[in-house]
Amino acid sequence: MSLWTASDAASATGGRATRDWQADGVSIDTRTLRPGDLFVALQAARDGHNFVAQALEKGAAAALVSRIPEDVPEDAPLLLVDEVLPALERLGIAGRARTEARVVAITGSVGKTSTKEMMRAALEGQGRVHAAEASYNNHWGVPLTLARMPADTEFAVIEIGMNHPGEIAPLARMARPHVAMITTVAAVHLEAFENVEGIAREKASIFEGLEPGGCAVINGDLAVSPILRAAARAREARIIGFGAGVSNHHRLREAHVREGATVGKARLWRTEIALKIATEGRHFLLNALGVIAAAQAMGADRARVICNLASWAPPSGRGTRETVVIDPAREGETLELIDDAFNANPTSVSAALAVLAAGQPCDGVGRVHRGRRIAILGDMLELGPREHELHAALAEDAAMAALRTVHCVGPRMRALHEALPPERRGRWVETVEELVPQIDRLVDSGDIVLVKGSKGSRVSRAVDAIRKLGQRTRSGEKEA
């Protein structure tokens, strides 16, 4: 069964199909396009119309365009529309309307993508699940995810993000979730908002898209939780709070970080449960409580959700832990790498530092013969006028006392570098490219190394440099 026929897509978008075709998927990038996809010629950093011919050559079933490119024949399989992005939005709305799937929408200042992936894993085996790819959570990512949703989907997981006021509500109305979850609200995107309360109101606008009788799953431990609750009550939503506070319906009572896992005990309403996830971080376990609440509100079996979560680990770049073998000929010549280089703000950096502080380095190996906890921190972006103050404040984080060295990357991170005590102060560099040639001298066997920073700081290049020191294996895996 095809995802879209020419007639269905034309009806959904108000466009005109040049000829009959059937598409099995929807793509916006010729690099990842698969034969049978409908190629959407979005105009963003580059005009997608310049790649229509290439898409058709690679086997695209058709192309969604607002004009016929000069290098494409008029009888090519096309769907002509007035504007491409609004047409994609209409296609997404139609994709949502034709399914009877139970839909959950997830937003939050921190943890959207990892929680979305956690939700996907939690629902596995309980029905046909459709979820957003990567971090497709913006003005084109949400409609693209909806347009890709098969009609027979039973559970849909939609991630919704924002950079400026007014972005979330239209996307939530497009997704029409039965359940909406807010992971947390933190000092992120302060360039566009006056304060955290403004961010909370924007995050809470996700409830404007809730279906009648919908459920709001809210982090109840926040200073701005009352703002979130008020917005949910305004939509007459059923509210489930999660967190560590005694007022939460789903409450984490204790958490213990182990090697390769976090385990704990929680109370779900009046039921005591043991909970485990296959990664390190108390913050992940807290979000798991929200996932359990949301999944159950969607009609999933709670026991199976809890079992599925026991084997969940975050996607690459979002807190994954792996072993880098420095010298395979010598036993123990490895270091532990925590790759959290996709995004950063004060809240997520604090959580990552806590994970690093809980790790156990290995002594007696390498040049230093003393295992160390080392952080390589890149700039936190979009923090507004207080950005230098917020960077410097990381020096007071409780986890810092357990760290040996902190290396800082970027002009904003200079504020942290200067605020650190001399015994903990590592290198400061303007760009990560200056740090990469020094990596082999900054880390050693026995170390646990955290790399954390906003994507724009490009500290992921430090991750790549560390991996190149040896043979990369995921934690818990053995070499063949």
UniProtKB/TrEMBL annotation:
Q: Name one GO molecular function term.
A: ATP binding
Provide this UniProt record's keywords sorted from A to Z.
Answer: ATP-binding, Cell cycle, Cell division, Cell shape, Cell wall biogenesis/degradation, Cytoplasm, Ligase, Nucleotide-binding, Peptidoglycan synthesis
The record's InterPro entries line, in alphabetical order, gives:
Mur-like_cat_sf, Mur_ligase_C, Mur_ligase_C_dom_sf, Mur_ligase_cen, Mur_ligase_N, MurCDEF_CellWall_CoF430Synth, MurE/MurF_N, UDP-N-AcMur_synth
Q: Which reaction does it catalyse?
A: D-alanyl-D-alanine + UDP-N-acetyl-alpha-D-muramoyl-L-alanyl-gamma-D-glutamyl-meso-2,6-diaminopimelate + ATP = UDP-N-acetyl-alpha-D-muramoyl-L-alanyl-gamma-D-glutamyl-meso-2,6-diaminopimeloyl-D-alanyl-D-alanine + ADP + phosphate + H(+)
**Residues annotated to bind ATP:** 108-114
Domain Mur ligase central, first and last residues per copy? 106-295
* Compartments reported by the entry: Cytoplasm
Asked whether the keyword Secreted is assigned, the reply is: no
- The EC number on file is 6.3.2.10
- One GO CC term of this entry? cytoplasm
> What sort of enzyme, by top EC class, is this?
ligase
* The protein's annotated pathway: Cell wall biogenesis; peptidoglycan biosynthesis
Give residue ranges for domain Mur ligase C-terminal.
334-454
Q: Which residue range or ranges hold the Mur ligase N-terminal catalytic domain?
A: 24-69
Q: Which GO terms describe its biological process?
A: cell division; cell wall organization; peptidoglycan biosynthetic process; regulation of cell shape
Its biological purpose is as follows: Involved in cell wall formation. Catalyzes the final step in the synthesis of UDP-N-acetylmuramoyl-pentapeptide, the precursor of murein.
Which NCBIfam families is this protein grouped with?
Answer: murF
So what family is this one in? Belongs to the MurCDEF family. MurF subfamily.
What name appears for this protein in its UniProt entry? UDP-N-acetylmuramoyl-tripeptide--D-alanyl-D-alanine ligase
What organism is the protein native to? Answer: Limimaricola pyoseonensis
